[in-house]
């Protein structure tokens, strides 16, 4: 028992759960005025945020903060597109020991297809919590081992998980044969930079309203 308590206290001391604590000044970065200006501005904003969050004491305080954050995001990003029918289509099902997996695609915008998989725990009844899972930068999307490990961990805990392919990953790759644009991060940049130049908000561009339907994800994909 003493060993377990000691291990827990050590782990607690080592784990830093501050979301923004990773932001550090890179002293080795070439001395450029733009970097210093952006870092200085970001540091001031992070300090203001830290002070504001430390003052939150009640549920009402957090709800006011939540409403303020939503308003700031809406102002910075612009309005999101109106909701449209998703028209989901299941293309196949995998039967596993503890869950079933439905392979599917849906339309996030009319004619704009998104490939995904719905992980359903077998031993479920009544209402079950669900997670919308967005994977990180992997060419295979949520199929990567590290993401599968996380998803199946959620499923074993009783969650339903809908994992989808972000743009440039999995079955939503647009530049498979173009070396300088083939990596997920390069695809993001190639599609994202023109939107900033045009002054268009990310929700509009990512919905397919600007660049049109994906050329690599069609209705016959399995």
UniProtKB/TrEMBL annotation:
InterPro entries: AB_hydrolase_fold, AXE1_dom, FrsA_esterase. It holds the Pfam family AXE1. Residues 97-175 form the Acetyl xylan esterase domain. This is Acetyl xylan esterase domain-containing protein. It comes from Rhabdobacter roseus.
């Amino acid at each position: 028992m003493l060993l377990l308590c000691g291990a827990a206290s050590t782990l607690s001391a080592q784990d830093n759960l501050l979301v923004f604590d990773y932001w550090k000044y890179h002293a080795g970065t070439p001395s450029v005025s733009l970097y210093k200006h952006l870092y200085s501005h970001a540091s001031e904003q992070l300090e203001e945020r830290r002070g504001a969050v430390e003052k939150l004491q009640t549920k009402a305080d957090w709800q006011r903060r939540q409403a303020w954050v939503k308003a700031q995001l809406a102002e910075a990003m612009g309005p999101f597109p109106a909701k449209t029918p998703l028209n989901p289509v299941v293309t196949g099902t995998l039967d596993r020991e503890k869950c079933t997996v439905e392979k599917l695609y849906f339309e996030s915008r009319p004619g704009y297809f998104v490939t995904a998989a719905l992980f359903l725990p077998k031993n479920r009844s009544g209402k079950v919590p669900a997670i919308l899972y967005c994977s990180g930068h992997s060419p295979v999307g949520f199929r990567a081992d590290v993401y599968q490990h996380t998803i199946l961990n959620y499923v074993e805990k009783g969650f339903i998980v809908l994992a989808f392919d972000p743009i440039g990953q999995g079955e939503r790759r647009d530049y498979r044969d173009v070396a300088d644009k083939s990596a997920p991060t390069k695809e993001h940049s190639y599609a994202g930079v023109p939107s900033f130049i045009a002054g268009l908000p990310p929700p509009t561009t990512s919905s397919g309203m600007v660049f049109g339907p994906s050329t690599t994800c069609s209705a016959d994909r399995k």
